[in-house]
């Protein structure tokens, strides 16, 4: 082993938590190396959150062309140019990469492109992408290695060379018929986008409903939305085998004898943490049965001086949660005592309309035996939706016996932007009346809060 290069901190992976920690420590004058084996900046700006929302917005524009007559717009022939859609996405990614490189330079954080693995206590060997190796050492090592799409062990699935979200977003030719394995959030977002571009789409879900953990009104609303847009949905599907090659012709066989045929197949059934082949046993880093690093509520692994953040640590798989992991580690390094316990986990499914949620759902409240009062309105009660002709959906709120907000769910156009108001009230431990009684601009979506809270039953005397 060559003499290790000494650093104040080593960060393996440049996802949301890893890059922000690199920039922060570098700005504090620490000697920092951020090791990344694939895409600088991690999944979000390169292959996941932002590219997918870029493509989804292009699909929304396509939907406006389809609905033009509703708005009094008469237009001639139009078509979707998938090469132009892809080029727009790539321009955004290129700009984000430049921004990331500038941040590393500005904050004096070194980037090392290669795959890192433990070879001794506090020591990493990096197989450089450009060839050769480097040996790096630090008393402080942070893992942010992310996750990847799960390929289920279905006979013939691997051989069919299925698309993941990465390859789907890079397509320059529209699939004739896309088969989507998985009725979760990623599958739904991309299924709708491809349908709006003009593809035939079939969603194949193993559970009885789409997004099966959500409340019944949510699953029913999404099911009806997709049905209205011409997307076929097969639930309670037990896939026995897959034949063919994605991009040419592929057939999915179900246990009930049904056959589903398409031109492409997309896997969107879950995520697998990137924790393999890292020499974990050398330093005593344990993983849990799901493959995630075992961490405590301060994100410390079972090896002294090693932390894990983001997807690989088993944190909820959202970029904003990975960013909060960074803040927890940052503050604790400075003597703080922040933990992952009881933190808010807001989520948005970027279908159109959007599904936004924070706090308890009705299903969760009932399962935990928590009493609540329900307020609920159709999105049409927020009059802004009528000006947009986007009245589909609802918003609802769960109120506890002390008048505090337990949870909020909104299925409607632009509802992602409603979450911060509710989150602030929940974080500040304010009663719902604090939101109910403020002056809200007319006409806005947030004005709907007034009507929403009007529907909350009064407390029993």
Automatic annotation (TrEMBL):
NAD(+) binds at residues 182-189, 205, 270. The keyword Lyase does not apply. This is FAD-dependent oxidoreductase. InterPro entries: FAD/NAD-bd_sf (IPR036188), FAD/NAD-binding_dom (IPR023753), FAD/NAD-linked_Rdtase_dimer_sf (IPR016156), Pyr_nuc-diS_OxRdtase (IPR001100), Pyr_nucl-diS_OxRdtase_dimer (IPR004099). Residues 7-322 form the FAD/NAD(P)-binding domain. Its cofactor is FAD. Binds 1 FAD per subunit. The lineage of its organism: Bacteria, Pseudomonadati, Acidobacteriota, Terriglobia, Terriglobales. It comes from Tunturiibacter psychrotolerans. Belongs to the class-I pyridine nucleotide-disulfide oxidoreductase family. The keyword Ligase does not apply.
């Amino acid at each position: 082993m060559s003499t290790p290069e000494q650093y104040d901190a080593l960060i393996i992976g440049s996802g949301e938590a890893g890059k922000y920690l690199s920039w922060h420590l570098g700005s504090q004058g620490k000697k920092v190396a951020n090791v990344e084996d694939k895409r600088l900046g991690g999944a979000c700006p390169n292959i996941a959150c932002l590219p997918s929302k870029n493509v989804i917005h292009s699909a929304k524009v396509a939907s406006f062309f389809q609905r033009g007559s509703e708005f009094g717009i008469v237009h001639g022939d139009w078509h979707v140019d998938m090469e132009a859609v892809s080029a727009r996405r790539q321009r955004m990614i290129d700009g984000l990469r430049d921004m990331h490189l500038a941040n590393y330079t500005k904050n004096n954080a070194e980037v090392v492109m290669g795959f890192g693995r433990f070879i001794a206590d506090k020591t990493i060997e990096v197989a450089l992408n450009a060839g050769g190796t480097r040996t790096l050492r630090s008393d402080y090592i942070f893992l942010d290695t992310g996750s990847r799409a799960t390929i289920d062990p279905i006979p013939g699935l691997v051989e069919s060379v299925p698309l993941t979200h990465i390859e789907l977003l890079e397509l320059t030719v529209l699939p004739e018929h896309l088969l989507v394995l998985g009725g979760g959030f990623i599958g739904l977002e991309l299924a709708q986008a491809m349908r709006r571009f003009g593809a035939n789409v079939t969603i194949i879900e193993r559970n009885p409903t789409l997004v099966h953990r959500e409340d019944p009104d949510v699953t029913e609303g999404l099911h009806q939305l997709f049905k209205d847009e011409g997307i076929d949905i097969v639930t309670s599907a037990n896939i026995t085998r897959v034949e063919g090659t994605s991009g040419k012709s592929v057939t999915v066989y179900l246990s009930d004898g049904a056959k589903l045929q398409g031109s492409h197949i997309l896997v969107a059934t879950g995520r697998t943490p990137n924790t393999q082949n890292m020499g974990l046993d050398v330093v005593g880093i344990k993983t849990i049965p799901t493959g995630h690093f075992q961490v405590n509520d301060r994100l410390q692994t079972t090896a002294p001086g090693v932390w894990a953040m983001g997807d690989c640590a088993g944190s909820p798989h959202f970029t904003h949660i990975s960013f909060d992991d960074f803040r927890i580690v940052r503050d604790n390094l400075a003597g703080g005592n922040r933990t992952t316990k009881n933190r808010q986990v807001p989520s948005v499914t970027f279908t159109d309309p959007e599904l936004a949620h924070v706090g308890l759902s009705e299903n969760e409240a009932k399962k935990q035996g928590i009493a609540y009062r329900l307020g609920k309105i159709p999105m049409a009660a927020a009059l802004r939706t009528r000006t947009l002709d986007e009245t589909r959906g609802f918003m609802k709120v769960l109120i506890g016996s002390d008048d505090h907000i337990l949870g909020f769910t909104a299925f409607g156009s632009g509802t992602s932007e409603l979450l911060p108001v509710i989150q602030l009230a929940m974080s500040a431990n304010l009663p719902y009346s604090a939101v109910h009684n403020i002056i809200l601009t007319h006409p806005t979506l947030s004005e709907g809060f007034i009507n929403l809270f009007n529907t909350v039953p009064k407390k029993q005397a």
